[in-house]
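[recover] target loaded
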């Protein structure tokens, strides 16, 4: 029987997405002798995505939270935590930050909240109500980390997270899985609609407002108008609440024959290996895992100058940065790659080298385990008792 300390990961919903993918990677890669894991979903989970978890001892719980305040969810979580008796509660983003008090009342010794990005309705973190909640919750957590330097600075300067509770934990990428492939080395993805001679611009991520796929579609339409002689194609891969809206937009612009929106896919590495350029049109981001996966696959990345994207993309070296919600600027950047295969190859190679040097999966897992180790050592082993959340 494994008596390693239990970590409960509290997340809004377990489904296809960057944050969720890296959560599963950390669970799969962290030594079983170090920590056990359970995932608590405030709403629900996607069974297809849950199958990515390779450890048989990981349990998943769904609280089926309804929209709004839902005070009963706090009680349900408290009861669940009392039964699970974890050493660590690790909550993710604003949607789960308010449950720190329930974890304290349930006797969870170590409580951690991670800032992995912002919502589309508050891309710059200026919502007073949201920030007041974040400030109110800081005393209930032992660590409030961020996954980008920009978010970490905002945590400290705007939310007031003290230095001893602040950390920056960068995302990591599996550079063996995401890597460039020689022509013909890997078969094309299933149902891939494009021909070998097509120049495919693509993106991968949840289809939601914060990703602003509408701007990318508009940019692609502008690009085709500028370069009508090139066989340009667009792939937008991912599921989400705006998938049908984006499909309708594509149809309305007459792009059905040149754009592909297949929904959620499990063969992302294979899809990235079939692209030529990667694009990110987000209006807010933490450290963008999808951009790092693209860079590991030796793709140049055109991304918006928001959040942690400029920390990842070296402008003019591994890709290009453009203003958010500016289809004209994105089309201009994409056009530079469309007419220069040499630039695509040079920036793509530089991007992979940057990932290998700065964003390894091994380093990410070690950093998270180090955080858990140090907090558990201070809060549990050394003192042998639960300490005040306000220390």
């Amino acid at each position: 029987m494994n008596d390693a300390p239990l970590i409960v990961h509290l997340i809004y919903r377990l489904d296809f997405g960057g944050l969720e993918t890296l959560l599963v990677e950390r669970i799969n890669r962290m030594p079983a002798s170090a920590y056990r894991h359970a995932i608590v979903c405030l709403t629900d989970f996607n069974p297809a995505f849950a199958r990515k978890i390779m450890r048989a001892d990981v349990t998943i719980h769904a609280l089926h939270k309804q929209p709004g305040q839902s005070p009963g969810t706090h009680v349900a979580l408290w009861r669940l935590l009392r039964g699970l008796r974890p050493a660590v509660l690790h909550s993710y983003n604003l949607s789960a930050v308010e449950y720190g008090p329930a974890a304290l009342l349930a006797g969870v010794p170590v409580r951690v909240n991670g800032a992995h990005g912002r919502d589309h309705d508050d891309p710059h973190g200026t919502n007073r109500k949201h920030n007041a909640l974040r400030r109110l919750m800081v005393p209930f957590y032992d660590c409030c980390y961020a996954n980008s330097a920009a978010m970490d600075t905002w945590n400290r300067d705007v939310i007031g997270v003290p230095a001893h509770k602040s950390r920056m934990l960068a995302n990591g990428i599996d550079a063996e899985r995401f890597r460039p492939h020689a022509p013909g080395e890997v078969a094309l993805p299933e149902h891939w609609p494009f021909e070998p001679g097509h120049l495919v611009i693509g993106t991968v991520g949840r289809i939601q407002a914060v990703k602003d796929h509408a701007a990318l579609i508009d940019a692609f339409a502008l690009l085709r108008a500028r370069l009508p002689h090139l066989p340009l194609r667009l792939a937008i891969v991912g599921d989400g609440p705006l998938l049908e809206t984006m499909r309708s937009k594509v149809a309305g612009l007459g792009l059905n024959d040149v754009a592909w929106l297949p929904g959620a896919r499990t063969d992302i590495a294979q899809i990235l290996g079939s692209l030529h350029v990667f694009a990110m049109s987000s209006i807010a981001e933490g450290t963008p895992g999808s951009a790092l996966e693209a860079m590991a696959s030796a793709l140049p990345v055109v991304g918006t100058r928001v959040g942690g994207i400029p920390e990842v993309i070296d402008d003019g070296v591994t890709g290009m940065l453009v203003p958010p919600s500016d289809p004209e600027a994105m089309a201009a950047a994409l056009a530079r790659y469309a007419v220069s295969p040499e630039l695509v190859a040079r920036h793509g190679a530089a991007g992979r080298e940057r990932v290998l040097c700065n964003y390894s999966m091994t380093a990410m897992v070690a950093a998270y385990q180090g955080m858990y180790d140090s907090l558990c050592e201070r809060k549990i082993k050394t003192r042998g008792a639960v300490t005040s959340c306000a220390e």
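[recover] notes: Residues 199-358 form a domain with the Rossmann fold fold (CATH 3.40.50.2000).
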